[in-house]
Amino acid sequence: DPAQMQVGYDPWEPFNRRMHRVNDAIDRTVARPLATAYMKVVPRPVRPGVSNFFSNLGLMDDAIRAGVLPTALPVDAEMPWVAPRDIAEVAAGLLLNRDWSGRTVRAVHGPVDLSWSRVAEILSSVLRREIRAERIGDDELLAGYLQAGMPRGLADAVLAMSTGLREGFTPEQPRTVASTTEMTLAAWAQDELVGA
Fold first, then answer.
1. Terminal Cα-to-Cα distance of the chain (whole angstroms)
2. How far is CA 85 from CA 13, 150, 166, 175, in A?
3. Helices 152-166 and 138-147, packing angle to 10 deg
4. Residue 194 and residue 196: Cα distance in Å, rounded?
5. Alpha-carbon Rg of the chain, whole angstroms?
6. pLDDT in tens, 88-118
7. Pair 57, 160: CB distance under 8 Å
8. What's the average model confidence in pLDDT over 162-168?
9. Where are the alpha helices (DSSP H) in the chain?
10. Which residues 6+ apart lie within 8 Å of 120 measured at CB?
11. Which of 75, 89, 126, 183 could disulfide-pair with 133, CB 3.0 to 4.6 Å?
């Protein structure tokens, strides 16, 4: 009965409170410690070899200021680039879908595939200064990991992820309308690199 509803009644409140507790626990026990370890172990110039998240560019501020985007990947090879916000929105959509249960693998490819050269062009435009993509060798990448204190086994594994991306890597799920998300690199850079 609407007359019995309290002011500010939210039928989703119990669910939202549970989700907040889950997200907070994941953040405290998994995400924050992983991010902290990542920042301590992976040197700035080699972080983009780990993943093609827009946010990794924010970890390269020294290199970007110097006008260089170092990568162990071919600078003209296109691959999916994605904003973490887009991943969160896809996950939230699944969690809020009453018809979904269990597990699913869902690709999130970002709005378009980008090469490191194209990323440099977009950043140059948004930041209004020249930035270029520069390929570095595997030995330089490995040396950077080891110099930062990464154990040899982990350094080899992270290097293998980077080299695997250039050796015929094919995403498990091809780009589709469902896997293509909104946030462009230019919009992300404007918000995170200029507006920060």
1. 47
2. 23, 28, 26, 18
3. 150
4. 6
5. 20
6. 888 888 778 888 777 777 788 899 999 999 9
7. no
8. 76
9. 13-26, 32-41, 54-58, 61-65, 84-96, 116-127, 138-147, 152-166, 185-189
10. 69, 75, 131, 132, 133
11. 75
